[in-house]
Write a structure and sequence with these properties.
220 residues, 20 strands, 0% helix, 51% strand, elongated
Length: 220
């Protein structure tokens, strides 16, 4: 807090600053990012004319950023820049007829608003803590965006976003967890592994039942 009381409320929703940017949402649901002076730093707003699908006519579309559809684990990585990146959802809405969403895509941008792409041939799923989840042919992996390197090769059928420095992934009956350097921290011998929560993570298999692991900090 900078000690100043702001009385000119402009936004329907506002989020905390990180990396010099804050996400704000207006009354129409459009999302932009503002700087410390509360001026627009990153936005996606355009009005253009295009052909309506399935009809022999053109209509106007409005393209904007919007909040994710769900407010759960799938929205992790939205709203806040993390290690210089944030996930955004771009929606193009047909402005003349029923406000139909003609285009809806989620992707990654940096603090300058530039789109950041996954490795060639892979689909972007999500990104948190600078680690991107990518997919191809039903197989998933972790990709370090800044270092442009694989944290986990895209060979897994189950994967969760990185949380508190830990990523959970695996195949059926062989789920474990790794750190951001690819080191195994929970062995791949469980049927289920939770995401990290306040330094604790739980795991289950039929042979041993439930186990709880605590994240430890190495000291010299």
């Amino acid at each position: 807090c900078d000690g100043v009381l702001y009385k000119n409320y402009t936004y329907a929703r506002a989020f905390a600053f990180n990396c010099g940017r804050a996400a704000v949402i207006d009354d129409d649901g459009r999302l932009t990012f503002v700087d410390y002076g509360y001026k627009t730093a990153i936005t996606k707003y355009a009005r253009f004319k295009g052909t309506f699908e399935g009809a022999d006519r053109s209509t106007y579309y409005i393209s904007s950023f919007y909040a994710p559809v769900y407010n759960n684990m799938s929205s992790l990585g939205h709203f806040y820049f993390d290690r210089g990146y944030v996930t955004v959802r771009q929606v193009n809405i047909e402005s003349m007829f029923n406000r139909r969403a003609a285009y809806d895509e989620t992707y990654l941008i940096d603090t300058a608003g530039n789109r950041v792409y996954p490795p060639s041939g892979y689909n972007f799923i999500s990104c948190s803590e600078g680690i991107m989840i990518v997919e191809r042919d039903g197989r998933y992996g972790y990709y370090d965006v800044a270092n442009k390197s694989w944290v986990a090769d895209p060979i897994y059928s189950y994967i969760m976003p990185f949380y508190e420095g830990i990523g959970v992934l695996g195949t059926e009956g062989a789920v474990g967890a790794i750190d951001r350097y690819g080191n195994t921290v929970i062995p791949f011998e469980f049927e289920y592994v939770s995401t990290m929560s306040t330094g604790l993570i739980s795991a289950y298999n039929a042979e041993d039942g439930w186990r709880v692991f605590a994240k430890m900090v190495k000291t010299k």
